[in-house]
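RECORD TYPE: inverse folding
INPUT: C-alpha cells
STRUCTURE:
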C-alpha cells in the first residue's frame, strides 16, 4: 500500500523530533547526574543508539526513516539512475519536515528538563578537524545505508545504523552529528548537545561533502547501480517473429 506523501513527511518530522529529543534530553540528564565528561558522553551515546534503533524499526516502513537531509539527498541522487529513489517533490517535502522536527525536538527536550525553551547554544564547534570528522562520519553513514540496500540487507538497518552512530560518537572528534537537520536543531539548546549557530554552516557543508564521498565509496565497493529496466515488450508484438512476418512494420514515431 502506498503511503501518502503528507503522511510520510509528517513521519519524518516526528522521527526527527524524537531523535533530537533523545540526543538533547539524554545530554541534559547526563550532565545533571555526573560531572565526568566521559560518563556524560557514554550516557548520551547509549541513549542515542537505543533511541535511533527503535525509531528506524518503528517508522522505517512508513517513510524510510531518513530523519536526515543528507540521506534524503543521497537517495534522490542514486534514484535518478535506478528510478527507485525519492522524487524532487518528495525531497522538497522531506527536508523541511526533518528540519522542523529537529527544532521541535530540541525545544521539547528543553521543556522536559525545565530549561529555557529556546536559548541559542554557546558551544562553539568551529575547527577544521571537526569538519573533517563530520565528513568522515557522514560518508561512513551513507556507505552503510546504501551498502545494506545494495546487498539486500535493509532489515539490519535499525541495528547497523544505530551501532554505527554509537561508534562514531567515539571515533570522531565532532561526536558525529552527520545530519544537517539535527545540527540545526541542536542550535536551539544551550546544553551538553548544543552547537553554536556560527558553527552550523561549516558542519552542514562538511556533511554534504561527506554524503557525496559516501556515494562514491558505494560505487567503488559495490559498483554503480544498474539503470531502471525498460518495460519488456508485450507478448505477440515485436518479440513474436511470426507476428513480425505477418504484419507490416509500424510507422516510426514523429520526432520533435
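DESIGNED SEQUENCE:
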Amino acid at each position: 500500500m502506498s503511503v501518502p506523501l503528507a503522511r510520510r513527511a509528517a513521519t519524518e518530522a516526528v522521527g526527527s523530533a524524537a531523535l533530537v529529543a533523545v540526543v538533547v534530553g539524554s545530554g541534559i540528564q547526563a550532565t545533571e547526574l555526573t560531572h565526568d565528561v566521559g560518563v556524560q558522553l557514554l550516557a548520551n551515546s547509549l541513549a542515542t543508539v537505543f533511541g535511533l534503533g527503535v525509531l528506524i524499526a518503528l517508522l522505517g516502513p512508513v517513510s524510510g526513516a531518513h530523519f536526515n537531509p543528507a540521506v534524503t539527498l543521497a537517495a534522490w541522487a542514486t534514484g535518478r539512475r535506478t528510478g527507485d529513489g525519492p522524487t524532487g517533490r518528495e525531497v522538497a517535502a522531506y527536508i523541511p519536515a526533518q528540519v522542523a522536527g529537529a527544532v521541535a525536538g530540541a525545544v521539547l527536550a528543553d521543556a522536559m528538563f525545565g530549561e529555557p525553551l529556546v536559548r541559542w547554544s554557546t558551544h562553539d564547534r568551529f575547527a577544521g578537524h571537526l569538519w573533517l570528522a563530520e565528513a568522515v562520519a557522514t560518508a561512513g553513514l551513507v556507505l552503510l545505508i546504501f551498502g545494506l540496500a545494495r546487498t539486500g540487507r535493509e532489515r539490519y538497518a535499525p541495528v547497523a545504523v544505530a551501532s554505527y552512530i554509537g561508534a562514531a560518537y567515539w571515533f570522531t572528534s565532532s561526536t558525529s552529528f552527520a545530519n544537517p537537520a539535527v545540527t540545526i536543531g541542536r542550535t536551539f539548546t544551550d546544553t551538553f548537545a548544543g552547537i553554536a549557530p556560527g558553527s552550523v554552516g561549516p558542519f552542514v557543508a562538511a556533511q554534504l561533502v561527506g554524503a557525496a564521498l559516501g556515494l562514491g565509496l558505494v560505487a567503488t565497493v559495490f559498483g554503480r547501480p544498474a539503470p531502471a529496466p525498460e518495460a519488456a515488450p508485450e507478448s505477440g508484438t515485436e518479440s513474436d517473429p511470426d507476428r513480425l512476418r505477418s504484419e507490416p512494420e509500424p510507422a516510426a514515431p514523429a520526432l520533435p
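NOTES: The chain has nine helices and no strands.
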